[in-house]
Amino acid sequence: MTASAPWILGLTGGIGSGKSAVAAHFANVGVHQVDSDQVARWVVEPGKPALDAIAVHFGDDILLADGSLNRPLLRERIFDTPDERKWLEALLHPLIREETWRYLAEGTSPYAILVSPLLVESGQWRNVQRVLVVDTPEHLQLQRTALRDGVSEDHVRSIIAIQAKRDDRLRHADDVLINDREPVWLQQEVERLHRFYLTLRGGKP
């Protein structure tokens, strides 16, 4: 990291925790950020080598008629098959990492944010200077996600089960934002954290 490069804050949280809302508030105060989920979509766009490798491995039916990735089918193929999920992660994680750090380095704000639901699981936490975990009680995770995605709470529980355990995320946290109140309060908390982060150098007091 050069003297002019931003230090990197890793932002994570379980499904339905509200990390996207937190990220949006940070963006509103001018903080450069990269969402690893968005990068994961970029690296499998038509014409990218990763998409060709996925089609060879899973078969051409993993592609839609326009040549793009059939994401629901891919999720179905890997959801209950750990070996297939590991194969996909081994293919995509290095590509996602390369693109992610390239975009983060372009930031002009004093710090930049890596938004990643798999910050802990993927080991990305080792490459950031500070970790902010958005935490919320499980019953709120279930309610929010079921309402947002139109799925059952049992389905949400199955997703939670394959993410990092709550205690694992919290163990890696430098800061924890408990998102169990109204949106206005959440925005105020983000602004408070932003003011604090602006006082840091390299993510440290």
TrEMBL record:
<dbReference type="GO" id="GO:0005524">
    <property type="term" value="F:ATP binding"/>
</dbReference>
<comment type="similarity">
    <text>Belongs to the CoaE family.</text>
</comment>
<keyword id="KW-0547">Nucleotide-binding</keyword>
<dbReference type="GO" id="GO:0015937">
    <property type="term" value="P:coenzyme A biosynthetic process"/>
</dbReference>
<keyword id="KW-0067">ATP-binding</keyword>
<dbReference type="InterPro" id="IPR027417">
    <property type="entry name" value="P-loop_NTPase"/>
</dbReference>
<comment type="function">
    <text>Catalyzes the phosphorylation of the 3'-hydroxyl group of dephosphocoenzyme A to form coenzyme A.</text>
</comment>
<keyword id="KW-0418">Kinase</keyword>
<protein>
    <recommendedName>
        <fullName>Dephospho-CoA kinase</fullName>
        <ecNumber>2.7.1.24</ecNumber>
    </recommendedName>
</protein>
<dbReference type="Pfam" id="PF01121">
    <property type="entry name" value="CoaE"/>
</dbReference>
<dbReference type="InterPro" id="IPR001977">
    <property type="entry name" value="Depp_CoAkinase"/>
</dbReference>
<dbReference type="GO" id="GO:0004140">
    <property type="term" value="F:dephospho-CoA kinase activity"/>
</dbReference>
<keyword id="KW-0963">Cytoplasm</keyword>
<comment type="pathway">
    <text>Cofactor biosynthesis; coenzyme A biosynthesis; CoA from (R)-pantothenate: step 5/5.</text>
</comment>
<dbReference type="GO" id="GO:0005737">
    <property type="term" value="C:cytoplasm"/>
</dbReference>
<keyword id="KW-0808">Transferase</keyword>
<feature type="binding site">
    <location>
        <begin position="16"/>
        <end position="21"/>
    </location>
    <ligand>
        <name>ATP</name>
    </ligand>
</feature>
<keyword id="KW-0173">Coenzyme A biosynthesis</keyword>
